[in-house]
Design goal:
204 residues; 76% helix; elongated; mainly alpha; Tetracycline Repressor, domain 2; Arc Repressor Mutant, subunit A; single chain
């Protein structure tokens, strides 16, 4: 990634959160997110982002803190797409936790290959260079866990919801990686996870 414009230099103003400024920031972010969804994170930079948004890197520095801030927001926007797709799939499932997890998994399994690849790249950056990109890894759990917690039975204590949601998230992450290697392995693992979830839901 290009570090030449990693952070906003002195003299650049910041979008102060006015309605007009916020609308412009969202517009720029949407265009850049679409570019990353199509072309991935390789060679991501402010200048590439500016070309995708039809503006200049100086304009981006008015609305974002720099390359890493922009990257974090782009990845968050892509994860929101993933969460939205999963929620849409779950909306048509039955009320059991296992059925919700199955529907979410099917959404993840069938999502666009490029979306999965980009989000895998983001996690790879977090592992390869945690000093710079740890927020990309932490952000994943912060975005995904609340949705999985909501899948849990409403009468469960909050701690139990969090524990089970964390187990499900960790397992699904592993199965997504397994899809790149062996579909049958991932499918078998998901079935075992669903049985574990059914047992957990049946427990007092």
């Amino acid at each position: 990634m290009d570090n030449a414009t990693d952070s906003g230099g002195a003299g650049y103003r910041r979008s102060a959160g006015s309605p007009r400024g916020e609308a412009r920031r969202r517009e720029l972010l949407a265009k850049i997110t679409d570019d990353v969804a199509e072309n991935g994170l390789v060679d991501f930079s402010l200048r590439r982002a500016a070309r995708a948004a039809g503006t200049t890197h100086k304009v981006l520095l008015y609305h974002f803190e720099g390359t890493e801030d922009l990257l974090r927001q782009v990845v968050a926007a892509l994860r929101e797409r993933r969460v939205g797709n999963a929620l849409a799939a779950v909306a048509g499932s039955s009320s059991t936790l296992a059925d919700r997890v199955r529907a979410a998994w099917e959404s993840l399994r069938d999502e666009e290959t490029q979306l999965r690849r980009v989000l895998d790249q983001a996690m790879g950056l977090a592992m390869y260079d945690p000093g710079r990109y740890a927020a990309l890894g932490r952000g994943a759990s912060q975005q995904y866990l609340p949705t999985l917690v909501r899948f849990c039975p409403a009468d469960w204590p909050e701690r139990r919801k969090l524990e089970v949601a964390s187990m499900i998230l960790a397992a699904l992450r592993g199965f997504l990686v397994s899809l790149l290697i062996d579909d049958d392995f991932a499918t078998a693992g998901v079935e075992a996870l669903l049985r574990a979830v059914e047992r957990e839901e049946a427990a007092p």
